[in-house]
Amino acid sequence: GAGVPGVVARPTRMLLRHRYGGPPWWAAATGDLVAEPAAPPYTATLRFTAPTVEMTPYLGWLAERVEAGGGRVLRRRLRHLAEAFDTAPTVVNATGLAAGRLAADPAVHPVRGHLVLVANPGLTTSVRDEDDPAGITYVHPRRHDVVLGGTYQPGVWDTGPDPQTAAAIRRRCVTLVPELADAPVLGERIGLRPARHGGPRVAAEPAGPAGGRLVHAYGHGGAGVTLSWGCAAEVARLALEG
Question: 30, 121, 169, 170: which could form a disulfide with 48 (CB 3.0–4.6 Å)?
């Protein structure tokens, strides 16, 4: 939304390698999708405006909203979900990958992602090639840097840097956006997307421990921000039913 820290409506260019069969299901959310011809190996270019989110300022804004509404942010280490009911009668289990253990859910698994951060040479448009046979490729400008990606590695827990992967990401992104060729590397980010076979679990337990209300909200993979507001509304509904 307008004025939300970290959220920017940014021009986006998506390159397709498969046959373009008409506007995708998400086109209605953009309002300005245009399809254009593209030179091989691409079949079409989609241009549209989409929000991009820089997570550090955005998460700070979310925390401020919680506290402004009377909430408190506490950090605690739990071995079992039942321990959370010592603090509140209603618990929302949004523990990401830890939900595999805390909720005894074997469907939870990591999807490793590797990003390279470079200085921004003046880019303002996001560019993505999700069909690249060498790996998903995207360039997302931010205020002070550009995010280059990426990888999508299901079942991989390793969060250590991989120089070969970083070099491959950079090569693909420079091919996509040649202006990045001389951009200095600022760092790398490796993270684990909290995915779940079968999709996200947003559901209430018939009866939580000690009669409390337990609502699960995990398994969103790399779509957490995209799905967050809709899932939050559903979680609130389930929590208030109790």
Answer: 30
